[in-house]
Amino acid sequence: MASRGRKRKFEAAVIAAAEKQEKLAGGQKEALRLEAPELPVKVNPAKPRRGSFEVMLLRPDGSSAELWTGIKKGPPRKLKFPEPQGVVEKLKKYLP
After folding, report:
1. For residues 53 and 86, is the Cβ–Cβ distance under 8 A?
2. Bridge partners of residue 68, in order along the sequence
3. Phi/psi of residue 24, each to 5°?
4. Helices 84-94 and 4-35 meet at what angle, rounded to 10?
5. 3-state secondary structure 34-88
6. Which residues face 66 on adjacent strands?
7. What are phi and psi of 39, to 5 degrees?
8. Residue 61 confidence (pLDDT) above 80
9. Mind listing the UniProt keywords for this protein, alphabetically (predicted)?
10. Interval 74-86: pLDDT, tens
């Protein structure tokens, strides 16, 4: 029989991992909102690719511009996720 603490530790780890993932996504979103408050920021308007992170600028005319992709980066896994300031710098190139 498993000890009583094992299940609780697992549940705590799952909750902590979900909060960390939410915090990372929140950092990107907040950095973009601070730089261009007039632009709507959506997280995953379509199903994301597995195992990495992509940032796209969707224009009103329906076209898109890739600001960052981690598809061909890594290992380690942390290289597959961008720094918020790097994404903001690329966004500035596409804004008038």
Report:
1. no
2. 55
3. -65, -45
4. 30
5. HHCCCCCCCCCCCCCCCCCCEEEEECCCCCEEEEEECCCCCCCHHHHCCCHHHHH
6. 56
7. -85, 130
8. yes
9. Acetylation, Redox-active center
10. 777 777 777 878 8
